[in-house]
Amino acid sequence: MDPLNWFEILARMAQQFLPVWVALVVTYALSIRFKRRLGLYGKLFDSTVGMIGFGIVMFWLFTALFADIVITHDALSQVSGMRNEPPGAALRDPGDLYPYYLLGGDSLARDVFSRMVMGAREVLRIAPFAAMISFMIGITLGLPAGYFGGKLDTGLTFLANLVLAFPVILLFFLLVAPEIQETIIPSVMAGVLFLVPIVFVTILLNARFFTQPAKRNLYVGGVLLVGVWAYTGLVFDADPAGFWSMSPNLLNVFVAVVFVNAPTVFRIVRGITLDIKTRDYVAAAQTRGEGPWYIMLWEILPNARGPLIVDFCLRIGYTTILLGTLGFFGLGVSPESPDWGSTINAGRRLLTVYPHPALVPAIALMSLVLGLNLLADGLREESLKD
Amino acid sequence: MLLFLLRRIGLMLVTALCLTFVVFALTNMPAKLETLAKTQAGSRMSDAEVASWLDRNGYGEPLVMRYGEWLGVWPGWVREDEDGTVTGRCVTLRDTPEAAGERCGLLQGDWGFSTRFRADVADVITARLGATGLLMMWVLIVMVPMALIVGVLAGMREGSRTDRTLSTFAIASTATPEYVSGVLFIALLASSTVGISPILAEWGWIDGRVLFQGNARSAMDNITLSNFTLPVLTIALYGMGYVARITRASMTEVMTQQYIRTARLKGVSFSKIVLRHALRNALIAPFTVIMLQIPWLLNGVVISEVLFSYPGFGWTLYEAAVNNDIELLLASSVVAVVVVLVTQLISDIGYVYLNPRIRIS
């Protein structure tokens, strides 16, 4: 069979992405129809930049979700004769496989297109959650630091600055090494880092509902149950049901990324808290006799949401870049892994002769981060209009 | 001001001590020492042999004491064998038995021996730092003016078409990490089969087969446009977007100030307002950001030096980490930490000095 030309490649790729297009159209149609009732999310559809960014992000999100239908070949299987083949090359003996490598083959004769699609799943499985945990840690520590001030603030700020003064790349080399994984350090750090979200949600609900013990016990009990279940699975890898588990590799990467991000979030939250705690509604709550945690979590935090949502988007993008960096140096990922950083690393050896295996994941990563940055920009613009 | 300076420097020293201790502890993990023993004395050692090798080479002491020795505040370990030969930290480092029992560490200038490069760590680091200094110089020469021009042009008239275009460009550049832009540059400009190089070569516009080289090793001897452009651009591009955005934000803020309106009502021309009245005030924030950006560039330096195989400081750091070269990794970490802390200090002092609204008494 003849290789495909670029027009045919694009057409076939568009065809593979069909479920993604459908999902995108449905999302946009519903969102634009009801945008006046959707708060900040709805306002996003008033800004062109925000809409473009949201579209790119959702494209990758849906790709990650529907990756099993989108791929043309298995991301790990090798097909003989397809080594370093250019985009659109036809399989010699397709059998019941898809007859083309849409974006060519890599140096181990695997399909670049399918690996790129599966890579989206790898990245989006970690980045948003790492960003979320970083945020919970940053908020849990940043709110009291800003609100109470004093020794607590001095101590926490010193710690945050200590971590921030550490060059990121050095931290990765030291923290995400095979020797470290055998020790207790990642587990201990994960133990501390994952404990904070549980504490955060518990305090959040307790501060609000402690006047209604029945409701409080129900909510806090539920959170603690799920939290402890997830905690045992993630930190000790001892979940009896096997629902929550994380390989030591992944845990190590996760811990390192959260560790790098959390101090920055802490600084942002602390700064906003310092500003907001002088407002009248905080004074009103204090006069009413509300507890400090209620004021922090239910008076200050909701009013800090604008900048925090914007930073959250940026942080997912930054986490994606960090994950790529780790993959690029071959740290903490299995060599087979289709994540974008390690595929770029694998492809760079033959870059000048066969650029496509490295170029495809590079452009994918860039577009996702660009989408997140544009989305953050759109959100910032719209939230400032309030 | 003096008190502020002293306090800042004191805090910096405490931070440096904490960080170097963390690095020391992480590089001197038992598992890493075991790897070191096996690479140094044979890979088929039994656990007991590894333990005795570590003990003989002074790794048996408690971590804090070894940290003190490495730093040079504690006398180095000494050990006298039954046949009377004296071994010790300072004996190996200085090649004289008389040195036994002295202090020899970072503070005395004894940085140790690199197992990867088979040379003194101090020599390796100074040579590599020189190479990276050159790289950084060009990065800053390219990055700073470009970022400031983009930021000022975009912030001059907020919301205009120029602003939109340049802001999008700045966002795109912050969304392109070094390993992506490096790969794109090499594929586009440095490949003899794809990109624009084959076209240019066919038209006879360039002499060689490629426009720029994708390998910067030759830049060690002789820096040319062809071998140094891509590494410099790769690092500069990622940092540029951020500085440009800060400059833009600062510029738009300044342009809404009363004194700009006054100048405009006086009938001063727009270009003169921008150059004489706005620019100086708008550049305070970018200055601190540029200084704080230098440690972030370190990331880029490591990635770009590895990608373009330019043997500078970042490449050394990478090699040390990959090859478990403990002494070299420690020394590189110290340098990196010092660079970060010093730039932070300069940015703080510079901010106070440049901004007349802040006075520390």
Share in helix of chain B: 55-70%
3D shape of chain B:
flat
Q: Strand tally of chain B, please?
A: 4
Taking the sheet with the most strands of chain B, its summary is:
2 strands, antiparallel
Q: How are the strands of the biggest sheet of chain B laid out side by side?
A: 1-2
* CATH fold name of the domain at 121-354 in chain B: MetI-like fold
Helix/strand-derived category of chain B reads: mainly alpha
| Beta-strand share of residues of chain B | under 5%
Oligomer: heterodimer
| Mean pLDDT reading of chain B | 83
What is the N-to-C succession of helices and strands of chain B? HHHHEEHEEHHHHHHHHHH
Task: Describe what this molecule looks like in 3D.
The complex is a heterodimer of chains A (about 375) and B (about 350). With about 375 residues, chain A is mostly helical. In chain A, helix 4 crosses helix 17 (about 355-385). A two-stranded antiparallel sheet of chain A has the order 1-2. Chain A is globular and about 80 Å long. Chain A starts with 5 loop residues before the first helix and ends with a helix. Chain A has helices at about 5-15, 20-35, 40-45, 50-65, 65-70, 110-150, 150-165, 170-175, 180, 185-210, 215-235, 250-275, 280-290, 290-305, 305-330, 340-345, 355-385, and strands at about 90, 100. Chain A has 17 helices and 2 strands. The longest helix of chain A has about 35 residues, at about 110-150. Chain B has a domain at about 120-355: MetI-like (MetI-like fold, Orthogonal Bundle), CATH 1.10.3720. The mean pLDDT of chain B is about 85. Chain B is about 70% helix and about 5% strand. Chain B has about 350 residues and is mostly helical. In chain B, the strands form 2 sheets. Chain B has a two-stranded antiparallel ribbon with strand order 1-2. Chain B has a two-stranded antiparallel ribbon with strand order 3-4. In chain B, helix 2 (about 30-40) packs across helix 3 (about 45-55), helix 6 (about 120-155) runs antiparallel to helix 7 and helix 11 packs antiparallel against helix 12. Chain B has helices spanning about 1-25, 30-40, 45-55, 65-70, 90-95, 120-155, 160-175, 180-190, 195-205, 225-255, 260-265, 270-280, 285-305, 315-320, 325-355; strands at about 80, 85-90, 115, 120. Chains A and B meet through helix 7, helix 8, helix 9, helix 15 and helix 16 of A and helix 1, helix 2, helix 7, helix 8 and helix 13 of B.
